[in-house]
Design a protein that fits this description.
about 525 residues, single chain, alpha+beta, 4-stranded antiparallel beta sheet, globular, 9-stranded mixed beta sheet
Length: about 525
């Protein structure tokens, strides 16, 4: 019995439009330090030129679910056993040709016998077992471990060269979907240290990485699948959207991520819905954010409709929860928090009367260039929270600094923190969101609630309609009893695409830009 992931379900989401006053929009007009790039032995025609919003902090494969890493690595340098189709939600064969559940807690995978790693090492079931063990069971602290598997270890073994068995601590109906997040690396890879430049089985191998300048991938001529069209891929990074757009319109780049219409991309801009939701995530152990009334007040203080209509009018939708429609578990009955600054002020005053130190400075870390107009959004949020009596410090940080606030173990010496996050559910199932942000001990969870934990642990074992309903209950309970987050908007994004190439973006493009799907136009 070959299994695939649950199909994504379409349900209703709402978005409304309102105004926001006095939002200053920043723009940059120069293309400083941009270079006209040819690259590759075959010249410009054989090199795909991609401009990113930021340089990847690492290409370590077990951190590939981080957007800035995965956009380069996933299914390009490295590959998983199975690959999720972002348009249908189905799992499709990749390094594994088929899979089936062979026991209550056991899954069996058949892997390909015609694949080698980019270092010449043969790929087989033993190599697949090594990568899973390294990412999930080891002591590296891989991001994929916390994001996908939490504290659960897996038993992995190779029965023969093409047969892999994976056993879970308890029944897991979506294990193949979870394994789609584990990128397979050469068994020569260290299992005691992170590797900045992984060796995988993908259509491209890492060539030259000039830190701070550019990163080049070279076509893997021994790739087991169809050969990609380009001999090389060259990545650059520019934080300003106007600069990335200008590189497309001037012919200096072929693909630019993270754009908006205001960046000047014109007819070369392609809009598409992604799976990202932006929100504030609260620290729950430090006053005043340890008081639910203050967290509720922040939700009432945010003018989501005004933010969307003024900053993101080209498709973003006001959010009521941390996943968008189409993800299994999306609760269509939840309405976005009402914009009610009077109610927010009343809640803060009530907390203050009870001795809560509501004047304490709240730090708001915001990652520079994380998505279009992120700095303007941070300033708007700071002003709206200040308007209801809260003391908020906006702090723009780079990717490395941002990760220190984002992931456990959390910063504990800087007081209360309301962190601006951008969460993408690449898997299409609510489990990957709630176990990360809501389950006690989750990689990005700063709260713990026994009732919520019970709902989450029950939901993970269910399938089909029961699974959908159980995760709807999780989001309802969190909204009523915990308020660990302030959802703001579900995003629609834009990329720039030169006339030279053809590519159809999808909901995973911002996390996983599959270069094998890009071709020359005409």
């Amino acid at each position: 019995m070959k299994l695939s992931s649950p199909r994504r379900r379409a349900v209703r989401a709402s978005a409304v439009t309102a105004g926001i006053a006095s939002i200053a929009l920043l723009a940059s007009c120069s293309v400083a330090n941009s270079e006209s790039q040819g690259g590759g032995e075959g010249g410009a025609a054989d090199t795909l030129r991609v401009v990113l919003t930021q340089e990847p902090p690492t290409l370590e494969a077990c951190d590939a679910n981080l957007t800035s890493t995965g956009v380069v690595v996933r299914s390009t340098v490295t590959e998983p056993l199975v690959e999720r189709n972002p348009s249908t939600g189905d799992l499709e064969p990749l390094l594994a040709t088929e899979w089936e559940q062979t026991g209550d807690t056991e899954w069996t995978f058949t892997v390909r016998d015609d694949v080698t790693f980019q270092d010449g090492t043969p790929f087989d079931a033993e190599a697949a077992a090594y990568s899973i063990d390294r990412a999930v069971n080891g002591d590296l602290g891989c991001n994929v471990e916390g994001y996908i598997f939490g504290d659960d270890d897996l038993e992995v073994s190779a029965t023969d060269a093409t047969t892999l068995t994976v056993t879970t601590p308890s029944p897991d109906p979506i294990l193949p979907l979870k394994l789609s997040f584990i990128e397979i690396v050469s068994p020569e890879t260290s299992n005691t240290e992170f590797v900045r430049e992984p060796i995988g089985t993908g259509p491209y191998a890492i060539g030259d990485w000039q830190a701070g300048t550019k990163l080049t991938l070279e076509r893997n001529d021994d790739y087991w699948g169809d050969a990609p069209e380009f001999a090389a891929v060259e990545y650059q990074w520019r934080s300003e959207g106007t600069v990335r757009a200008a590189m497309i319109t001037s012919g200096e780049a072929d693909i630019a991520l993270g754009l908006s219409a205001e960046d000047g991309i014109g007819d070369l801009g392609v809009s598409y819905p992604n799976n990202e939701t932006i929100a504030l995530r609260f620290s729950g152990q430090t006053a005043p954010l340890d008081d639910i009334r203050v967290r509720q007040a922040i939700n009432y203080a945010i003018d989501r409709e005004g933010i969307v209509s003024s900053l993101y009018p080209d498709g973003d939708k006001v959010a009521a929860q941390l996943i968008p429609e189409g993800i299994v578990g999306f609760n269509s009955d939840l309405e976005p928090w009402e914009y009610d600054p009077e109610q927010a002020t009343a809640l803060i005053e009530e907390a203050k009367a009870d001795g809560v130190p509501v004047d304490t400075k709240i730090l708001m870390p915001v990652r520079t260039a994380q998505f279009p107009k992120v700095s303007e959004l941070g300033e708007v949020l700071r002003e709206q929270l200040a308007a209801v009596g809260l003391n908020v410090e906006l702090r723009m940080v780079d990717t490395t600094q941002h990760l220190q606030y984002q992931l456990s173990p959390f910063v504990t010496n800087e007081g209360p923190i309301a962190m601006l996050i951008q969460h993408g559910n690449q898997a299409g199932d609510a489990q990957f969101t709630v176990e990360q942000y809501m389950l006690t001990g989750g990689a990005q969870a700063e709260f713990g609630d026994p009732g919520l934990d019970e709902l989450i642990t029950t939901a993970r074992t269910l399938t089909d309609d029961e699974r959908q309903s159980a995760y709807e209950d999780v989001f309802s309970y969190e909204r009523e009893n915990v308020v660990a987050l302030a959802p703001i908007a579900h995003q629609t994004v834009m990329l720039g695409l030169s006339d030279r190439v053809t590519y159809e973006p999808n909901s995973s493009t911002g996390d996983e830009l599959r270069i094998k799907e890009v071709s020359l136009a005409g």
